[in-house]
Prior knowledge:
Blueprint lengths: L1 E7 L3 E8 L3 E13 L4 E2 L8 E6 L5 E7 L2 E8 L3 E9 L11 E10 L6 H6 L2 H72 L4
Antiparallel strand pairs: 1-9, 2-8, 3-4, 3-7, 3-9, 5-6, 5-8
Amino acid sequence: xxxxxxxxxxxxxxxxxxIPSDTLVVGNYKVQRWDLHIHxxxxxxxxxxxxxTVTSPTSEVLLSKLYGPQGTFTFTSxxxxxxxxxxxxxxxxxxxxxxxxxxxxxxxxxxxHFLDESAIQAKDKVNEVNIRLEHLIEQIHHxxxxxxxxxxxxxxxxxxxxETNSNILWWAIVQTLILISVGIxxxxxxxxxxxxxxxx
Length: 200
């Protein structure tokens, strides 16, 4: 996931990432500040830091740390589900004058384990193959976890659909029984009325 978004200097912005359990997440970001003179974003925002907070689906805080105008944060998910990643600048300016616009470039990699190419080149061919194999095995484990998570979600969705269909069927049966009961009661009431008036 690679994106950018705009926030105010004292504003908090959150994104939601659906992450399988036991998965490493690596995020890289860079902050740019709007310049009123050149009417464009500066290359960086020196002196400005970002609070990064990561919350698990059970509202447990996995990460809460202050970084600089650009940085890398990592965390590991312990359970699968929607994790909330929030950003807020550490601007100390008052809200009245802290109207400067910030642009945050964000790149999030889920389950990625990166190869250090310089380290690989320094080793002999056998070690290079070993490192690449380890990387491949790690990626296979990640894909397997992703598939298991998707299967769990699909099973949960199927159960919910079946329960909903069952409820709809029972509701239709109850409605039919009520209609039949009301019809029989109306017929009996009319019959009794006609008999009492000696029309039948």
